[in-house]
Amino acid sequence: MDLIQNTNEYKKWIEELKSEIQKSQIKAAISVNQALLDLYWRIGKAISEKINEGNWGTSVVENASKDLRIYFPNQRGFSRSNLFSMRKWYDFYTKSRLEIEKVQQLVGQIPWGIMC
Question: pTM of the entire structure?
Fold first, then answer.
């Protein structure tokens, strides 16, 4: 074992490196979550628009779920119930009196599911 590994200076340095790595991991997780929430918002909006304005009916959700799971077989999150939840989330905030831009900014700050 190298003698430098036993010094306080080295141990402190390693702790600082570990801290920097953990901070970067948290920032990466937050960025991923922001991107996913933005995607879910856009999917919810697209579904809501097709059902409400395109008169496609709710069967479009089941069809979209099947097609997305075929196209992205290794990804989770595109079940029928998840797609309905995305639509419900979008509809709730667009029908409330909250300003959409503020909601989108706040959603981008939610660190759900951070794993270090």
Answer: 0.70
